[in-house]
Amino acid sequence: MKVLLLNGSPRKNGCTYTALNVVADALKAEGIDAEVFQAGDPDMENVKAAAAKLKESDALVVGSPVYWASPSGQIIEFMDRLASVAGKDMLYKPAAAVASARRAGTTATLDVLTKYFSYHQMPVVSSCYWNMKDEEGVQIMRVLGKNMAWLLKCIEAGKKNGVAVPAAEDKIKTNFIR
Are the C-beta atoms of residues 155 and 94 closer than 8 Å to each other? Predict the structure, then answer.
């Protein structure tokens, strides 16, 4: 099993990267492979590289610093493009969002990032508090990694015992024009 962690910060080795590495270390301690990918560059080639890695991954974690009480513009653009290119490869994979900030804006950032998961029917993995990195955030990241590993192992056990992914329905689109 493998988890792809997207670093949505333009600062390659900053606080968001540090938080994602705590999650990755917790996953690895549980026997789950984890890779942090620098998604701070929304260039289409970088998005395609992440899409290829996502296709081979069993779960996704998206991290972002908080800028003006919301995710970085880079990760929003990156996720918009990734969802367009690889939305089918996001379906039903467990996902989590991580926000890195000193204080304000973390819950709004988590809300924005989680919407990508809801749209793609991804089970959202939580921790013991909001997944934000601050003073107590290192523990929260470790618990998130352990919870992600547990859910992945449950899904794998279900597959081995014949539990199928839900049958997809054709999407109904509302048209407000009469």
Answer: yes
**Longest pairwise C-alpha distance within the chain:** 56
Condensed to tens digits (0 to 9), the pLDDT of residues 75-129 reads 999 999 999 999 999 999 999 999 998 767 889 999 999 999 999 999 999 887 7
Cα–Cα distance for residue pair 50/102, rounded to 1 Å: 28
- Mention every residue, 6+ apart, whose C-beta is less than 8 A from residue 27: 3, 33, 34, 145, 148, 149
User: Is beta strand 70-71 parallel, antiparallel or unpaired with respect to 59-67?
Assistant: antiparallel
DSSP letter for each residue of 109-173: HHHHHHHHHHHTTPPBP--SS-SEESTTHHHHHHHHHHHHHHHHHHHHHHHHTT-PPPPP-PPP-
Q: Looking at this protein, which amino acid is placed at residue 44?
A: M
